[in-house]
Amino acid sequence: MSRADKVAFGVYVHWPFCLSKCPYCDFNSHVRHAAIDEARFASAFAREIATTAARAPGREVTSIFLGGGTPSLMQPATVGAVLEAIGKHWSVANDVEVTLEANPTSVEATRFAGYRSAGVNRVSLGVQALDDASLKALGRMHSAREALDAVAIARRSFDRYSFDLIYARPDQTPAMWAEELRLAIDEAAEHLSLYQLTIEEGTPFFGLHQAGKLKTPDEAVARALYDVTQETCDRLGLPAYEISNHARRGAECRHNLVYWRGEEYAGIGPGAHGRLDIDGIRHATATEKRPEAWLMRVETNGDGVVTDDLLNSEERADEFLLMGLRLAEGIDPERYKALSGRPLDPKRISLLREEGAITVDATGRLRVTSSGFPVLDAVVADLAA
């Protein structure tokens, strides 16, 4: 069976702890000044994996993603214990992709060698910027030099690695960003995740922004920065395969494709989300966010699940549309029809084609165009209506 024919099944594991909380971050991450009891967490991860596998048995795991928080604060033995538990309760594909997120401040060559021995074969580094002033403004704990040193360690330790950058930062110009991107692509080899800075409610940046103390680029500059991103990455061999992710052909993050293609995945750990098909029904699961509360819940009940919603056909189809149209490969409208029980409205498709927001190829596959991507939410809302 070729990779294209294989049914994808992902396992996402959330490590919720960080050394410090970044001022723009609204992820489920927590700072603890006392030592983390990693053995207890590893045991709870294993228990939740066992419970989840009992609900969704017989899957072959094609990708595992250790996200956070800062998973690179975990001891390699903890990572090994988690991967061992996954392998004990599900079968694991020979070519499984196992990604670990790392922060440049917690990257040491010895630790990376430990992760590789534990079974990690891809790392994703939270670099965020390649100039010191921006890193300081973003509340990052590392310098640009440390970030590039961490990338070099990743390059020596793993065949596959990626890193993240944030753009549309305060005072950033398209020319500055183009220069930074060129440097990033020289270092990145095969994959980059490039996110526009968004001001999320409940973060320190939100309060500063509201008070006028944090100025982000206006809409025109933000659009110019987006255009520079697409043009530079295309020209230098890392085209977008998803709205914020760029890769050389064949180097796409397989785990992320699980989400965007609407496949199944298990969510393990505090605040993790999952999508599981049980008895032909899609379950949208979420676990307790607070790490210690999650721990107690798992030790008592076998899992930390606090939400287990059954998605009806309309909800499944809408989610498929919302996620799938983020991809450069687009969606097959026939799959939407199979999920929802009704086709997409041909009049809306025709109108969006005339506006240049989407294309439909000879096979009927529907894709958002480069001019449609900046207004993706509106395109999705129009098609889903």
Task: Describe the structure in your own words.
- With 385 residues, the protein is an alpha/beta fold.
- It has 14 helices and 16 strands.
- The protein folds into two domains: 9-258, TIM Barrel (Alpha-Beta Barrel); 325-384, no CATH class.
- A nine-stranded mixed beta sheet has the order 9-10-8-7-6-5-4-1-11, sandwiched between helices. Strands 12-13-14 form a three-stranded antiparallel beta sheet. Strands 2-3 form a two-stranded parallel ribbon.
Structural topology:
Layout: E1 9-15, E2 17-18, E3 30-31, H1 38-55, E4 60-68, H2 76-89, E5 91-102, H3 109-118, E6 122-128, H4 132-137, H5 144-157, E7 160-167, H6 174-188, E8 191-196, H7 204-210, H8 219-235, E9 240-242, E10 245-247, H9 254-260, E11 264-268, E12 273-278, E13 281-287, H10 291-301, E14 305-310, H11 313-324, H12 333-340, H13 346-354, E15 358-360, E16 366-368, H14 376-384
Parallel strand pairs: 1-4, 1-11, 2-3, 4-5, 5-6, 6-7, 7-8
Antiparallel strand pairs: 8-10, 9-10, 12-13, 13-14, 15-16
Helix pairs in contact: 1-2, 2-3, 6-8, 11-12
